[in-house]
Amino acid sequence: MNPPRATTTLRAYRLLSRALAPLLLGWLWWRGRREPGYRERLAERLGHLPIEPSRFGGLWLHAASVGEVQAARPLIEALLRDWPEHAITVTTQTPTGAAALRATWGDRLAHRYAPIDTPGAVRRFLDRLQPQALVLVERELWPQWLFACAERALPVLLVNARLSESSARSYRRWPGLMAHAWPRLGVAAADAASAERLRDLGVAAEHTAVTGNLKFDVAPPEQAEPLSPALQARHLVVAGSTHEGDEAAWLDAWPGLREHHPQALLVLVPRHPQRFDAVAAELQRRGLPFARRSLGDAVSDRTAVLLIDAMGELMHWYRHASVCFVGGTIAPVGGHNPLEPMALGQAFLFGPHTANAQALFDDAQAAGAGLAVHDAATLAPAVHGALREPAAWAARGAVARGLVDTNRGATERTLAVVRARLGEVDPSTLVPVLTDTHGSDTLWHDPRTVRTERASGLFESDATTEHLATGSGRGQARLVHLDGHGLVLRHYRRGGLMARLSEDRFWREPAHLSRAMREFALLRLMRSWRLPVPAPALARHRPHGLVYSADIAVGLIEGSRNLVQRLQEAPPSPDDWASLGHAIRALHDRQVFHADLNAHNLLLDMQGRAWVVDFDKCAVRPGEAWKADNLARLQRSLRKEAARLQPFHWDESQWASLIAGYGPTPSAGGTTDSTP
Predict the structure, then answer these.
(1) CB 519 within 8 A of CB 536
(2) % the chain with pLDDT above 70
(3) Of 3.40.920.10, 3.30.160.20, 3.40.50.11720, 3.40.50.720, which CATH number belongs to 8-212?
(4) Burial classification of residue 174, based on how many CB atoms lie within 10 Å of its CB (0-12 exposed, 13-18 middle, 19 or more buried)
(5) Which residues pair with 553 in a beta bridge?
(6) Where is the 3-deoxy-D-manno-octulosonic-acid transferase N-terminal domain (predicted)?
(7) How distant, in Å, are the alpha carbons of 85, 371, 423, 567, 590 from that of 145?
């Protein structure tokens, strides 16, 4: 697929997002007066993450807030079976989402705040995290995020995808905003209707699967905290995840319900913690006797309402409820998660606003697990009926549990889609990278190969070394044996005209963007893809005022010779040429652009396996046309060496064997051509 092109609509969106960025940051600071979490790590919102190379090449999973974190729980646990903890980074937009993540996984998973959707913030974020894929949960489609990922050929997958008809209409109203995103997006949809809407917007049918709702697989807490004797004597009516409109309906209906059911206790669980005090003030204004959970207020016979002004307790109260209500449905929010009560075998009431999970609410209502109300007038008789006939209401609860059990399995189906989207990956190769500073030097190294105490002096080592031939012919590679490992050390040097001005100095830039660290990170990523490249061992960035120098050490490919050396000795076999073509194709299939693909940078080992080396200034990039240019560059290098060296066992007919191993070749226009 060709590189993305920004439409006029997207350019206008970028201008608007940049203009609004200071206002957004100011709003976060203002909101932090009541919720200090919004003031935490504001720099991350601008993409300024800590540099942790161990996380490079891992997964970026974004779950906006509490609901998305809860939905992602079973998928994250499944991913952790394959991926090391340090290779998964989870972002949220809200502090409550961050708190939900910590409550489940503690410090096992890294949390970062997601960048605002401006080009600069997103670029910095991706430069500092360098993931190999982005997994979005439910509806988090940010235009610039997706454009920046497309520029870097990063696969993006939307899991548990839900899209309402009103949201689809909004996207259709501004088609240029996401034109770059739809053809590249992979979708694991929660329901068939959402999948169809996304296909209509432009997501490829072959990239769309209906995997079911991940929330069906969220296991409820196993241990139930017992209720106090005072609460055991009451019939708990739990209104969960409520907003102002929900609470207004309940508080209008509750005095009348209390007259018929004096043992009933309304348990209000507001969705957002910043509203706890406002809800308490409203209860005070209405003159309803209430207790606050956070203050430890005792519940007496007079108490009409228990206000749960604490986070993370909703499932506890749903478990002990006589009647449950799912909030955000009388208030025009779109509805929160009905699977929370259903997973506990509880039927539930809900209002008319259910667009966030329309199919789920519809299925629950059709099965009898959910009962729709519209306002305070219809809410009161529904609650009255449930409390008056508890056996009938419990039967609805059994239906709810059966519906959940029938629909389990979305996690494994989603995981299969994720694996297919990522391609062949071996996450076990993404071992932690140790970072060190020695004077002004920054060092990254693989501790399996280079011990910390040896890292700082390796490039100045007095150990016996052997100079190796390299692609540039400048003799900058040395072979060193260290603790049983053969390492190839290379000092970065300039070529061409610039070498006359400065042999080995480059304009200063952050260490993680320097040539050595970029090559180290790319090699580590490619090794996770099982590509035929050497293993990175050590990288060094050394600043010198306004410039820097760099070095890298990679694992030796035992028993290998580069293609020029082989051609000077004897003609490679057709199988050797095919192996070389296959190795290049493996890189191209992963969109790896080699900036200097020449005969010196291709190796053949004693088993006839081909390897590719020297990835300075290389990168993963989108598009197809450059692949033909890559092959043409290699062919020119063979012709150049044939004119320069004697003997040199090369003739043009051998190129056909390499192309046979490569397969159909891309043309300059980005299509494929099977003609050599």
Answers:
(1) yes
(2) 95
(3) 3.40.50.11720
(4) middle
(5) 489, 538
(6) 40-218
(7) 24, 39, 21, 47, 21
Question: Residue 86 class from Cβ within 10 Å (0-12 exposed, 13-18 middle, 19+ buried)?
Answer: middle
At 551, list the tokens.
């070095």
What distance in Å separates the CA atoms of residue 164 and residue 172, rounded to the nearest whole number?
Answer: 13
Asked whether the beta carbons of 645 and 616 are under 8 A apart, the reply is no
Give CA–CA dist 182/202, Å, rounded: 5
Mean pLDDT, residues 617-631? 96
Instruction: Give the strand pairing for 264-270 and 305-307.
Output: parallel
76-113 pLDDT tens trace: 999 999 999 999 999 999 999 999 999 999 999 999 99
For the segment(s) 229-406, the CATH number from 3.40.50.2000, 3.10.180.10, 3.40.50.720, 2.40.30.10 is 3.40.50.2000
Which stretch of DSSP H or E encloses residue 239?
strand 235-242
pLDDT tens digits, residue range 140-170?
A: 899 999 999 999 999 999 999 999 999 999 9
The span from the first CA to the last CA of the chain, in angstroms, equals 22
β-strand pairing of 610-612 with 665-666: unpaired
DSSP 8-class letter at 20: H
Could you give the maximum distance between any two Cα atoms of the chain, in Å? 104
The answer to whether residues 135 and 59 touch, using CB atoms and an 8 Å cutoff, is yes
Q: HSE on the CB side for 346, CA within 13 Å?
A: 28
Annotated catalytic residues are 68, 596
Total-model pTM: 0.88
The CATH code of domain 561-673 reads 1.10.510.10
Cα distances (angstroms) measured from residue 180 to each of 114, 142, 144: 21, 12, 10
The band of 461, judged by pLDDT with boundaries at 50, 70 and 90, is low
Count of other CB atoms within 10 angstroms of residue 237: 24
List the domain boundaries for the chain: 8-212, 229-406, 433-555, 561-673
Please compute, for residue 512, the number of CA atoms within 13 A of its CA located in the half-sphere on the CB side.
18
Per the prediction, the chain carries an average pLDDT of: 93
User: What's residue 194's pLDDT?
Assistant: 94
Q: Are 580 and 661 in contact (CB under 8 A)?
A: yes
Beta strand extents in 431-518 (DSSP E only): 434-438, 441-445, 465-468, 477-482, 485-491, 506-507
Cis peptide leading into 84, omega within 30 of 0? no
CA 671 to chain centre: 30
Of the candidates 143, 98, 556, 107, the one whose C-alpha atom is nearest the C-alpha of residue 311 is 98
Q: Same topology for domains 8-212 and 229-406, yes or no?
A: yes
Alpha-helical regions (H) of 327-428: 339-343, 358-367, 376-388, 390-406, 410-422
The contacts of residue 196 (CB under 8 Å, 6+ apart) are none
628-650: b or e for each residue (b if 16 or more CB lie within 10 Å)? Answer: bebbeebbebbeebbeeeeebeb
Token pair 């059966």 is found at 402
- What are the backbone dihedrals phi and psi of residue 179, each rounded to the nearest 5 degrees, phi first? -60, -35
SS3 of residue 209 by DSSP: strand
Which three-class secondary structure state does DSSP give residue 465? Answer: strand
Residue 32: other Cβ atoms inside 10 A: 15
- Owner of token pair 């909703």: 314
- Sequence letter at residue 446: D
Residue with tokens 């009926």: 385
The C-alpha atoms of residue 16 and residue 564 are separated, in whole angstroms, by 54
Q: Is the pLDDT of residue 672 over 70?
A: no
Asked whether the predicted pLDDT for residue 674 surpasses 50, the reply is no
